[in-house]
């Protein structure tokens, strides 16, 4: 039993390394805009109109709107990192992929915090409209 377990345990790191080597470059690719992000100005304007914001909600709306927009500097960093992938060794590619994923997580958390702050200013009726209008399309 020990011999069989040893063989299985020695195969595990190899299998993990192979899986990461095959999927790592995919994770490092620049994020493609979501369908609702393409033509974002129109959908954002439509959402704003549907919500019928009160003057006291404007500041939270502006923060939410700004946080929802893509950051051109971050997109450039991701593009540059992806272009460097071909010149890096496997461990370096993984480190860079992890770094890029952390940056994406931080950006997502900033957007989530702005959304939560804005959402808290909405009336229950506005929240229902927001929920309906921002629901991702079914697949």
Biggest pleated-sheet summary: none
- Number of strand segments: 0
- Poorly predicted runs are 34-40
Shape: elongated
Distance between the termini: 47 Å
Helix/strand structural class: mainly alpha
How many whole angstroms does the radius of gyration measure? 21 Å
Give the strand content: under 5%
Integer count of domains:
1
Assign a percent range to the helix content.
Answer: over 70%
What is the averaged pLDDT score? 80
Q: How do the helices and strands follow one another from N- to C-terminus?
A: HHHHHH
Number of helices: 6
Describe the SSE topology:
Layout: H1 2-27, H2 40-51, H3 58-68, H4 72-84, H5 90-121, H6 124-133
